[in-house]
């Protein structure tokens, strides 16, 4: 079926009962449509007839893929916070630096606001995102009823704007480039785990069909 525009589909389903279609607002131009995403096949896309923005896309095996990537992200997150990121060797001395070391150092220097910001965006928010995704996806995958999954999923979507794993990785790489001329910098397993976390988190987000999650949550509520 390929990529279908929503103009014809909305026209055909405007007068159908509510259980035959859901109201969807275009995120770019606020045009209101009504259509049934359950009629789409894997790979089909629904776009806005006014501005061409993507409104819905049927993704293959969305729950299993998103759950697998999220579980992988949890493992990588644990590794990234359990082992040192870098080891600096200079003048016969070695100093290992972990993810939490920078936060602790800023707090000891009195920069509490910056320490809280770094802790929240690189440790707390990613952890809450992972746990929230597992809280939502596990019950949907295995047909288990839990309390208030819609609220948790809404919080997870909101937290996506505050997770800055990619920014932290860029900062680490910039620090390595500057330090490599003054000392021997040895990357440790936590750094590779943190880099992997960046990709698995993005993969979990891109493989998840948020529309399918909301529809399933509506049916189970």
List the main descriptive attributes of the protein structure presented here.
alpha+beta; three-stranded mixed beta sheet; 8 strands
In words, what does this structure look like?
There is one protein chain. The chain is an alpha+beta fold. The protein folds into 2 domains: 3-57, no CATH class; 62-220. The chain is built from 8 helices and 8 strands, in the order βαββββαββααααβαα. Strands 1-4-5 form a 3-stranded mixed beta sheet. Helix 2 packs antiparallel against helix 4 (112-142) and helix 4 (112-142) packs across helix 5 (149-159). It is elongated, with a radius of gyration of 22 Å. It starts with a strand and ends with a helix.
Per-chain topology:
Elements: E1 3-5, H1 6-13, E2 22-25, E3 32-35, E4 45-47, E5 54-57, H2 62-82, E6 86-90, E7 93-97, H3 99-108, H4 112-142, H5 149-159, H6 165-179, E8 184-187, H7 189-207, H8 210-220
Helix pairs in contact: 2-4, 2-7, 3-4, 4-5
- C-alpha Rg (nearest Å): 22 Å
Task: Compute the number of helices.
Answer: 8
Give the proportion of residues in helices. Answer: 55-70%
Overall 3D geometry?
elongated
Largest sheet: 3 strands, mixed
Number of domains: 2
Strand fraction: 5-15%
* Mean of residue pLDDT values: 81
Low-confidence stretches: 1-20
Q: What order do the SSEs take from the amino end to the carboxyl end, as H and E?
A: EHEEEEHEEHHHHEHH
Alpha-beta classification: alpha+beta
Strand order of the largest sheet: 1-4-5
End-to-end C-alpha gap: 31 Å
User: What's the total count of β strands?
Assistant: 8
């Amino acid at each position: 079926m390929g990529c279908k525009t929503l103009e014809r589909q909305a026209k055909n389903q405007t007068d159908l009962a509510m259980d035959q279609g859901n109201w969807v607002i275009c995120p770019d131009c606020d045009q209101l449509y009504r259509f049934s995403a359950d009629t789409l096949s894997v790979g089909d896309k629904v776009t806005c007839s006014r501005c061409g923005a993507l409104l819905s896309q049927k993704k293959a095996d969305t729950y299993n893929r998103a759950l697998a990537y999220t579980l992988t992200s949890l493992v990588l997150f644990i590794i990234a916070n359990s082992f040192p990121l870098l080891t600096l060797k200079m003048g016969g001395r070695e100093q290992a630096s972990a993810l939490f070391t920078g936060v602790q150092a800023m707090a000891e220097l009195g920069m509490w606001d910056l320490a809280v910001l770094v802790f929240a965006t690189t440790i707390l928010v990613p952890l809450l995102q992972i746990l929230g995704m597992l809280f939502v996806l596990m019950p949907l995958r295995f047909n288990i009823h839990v309390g208030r999954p819609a609220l948790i999923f809404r919080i997870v979507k909101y937290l996506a704007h505050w997770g800055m794993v990619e920014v932290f990785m860029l900062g680490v790489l910039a620090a390595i480039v500057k330090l490599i001329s003054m000392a021997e910098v040895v990357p440790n397993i936590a750094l590779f785990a943190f880099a992997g976390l960046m990709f698995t988190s993005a993969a979990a987000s891109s493989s998840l069909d948020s529309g399918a999650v909301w529809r399933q949550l509506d049916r189970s509520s």
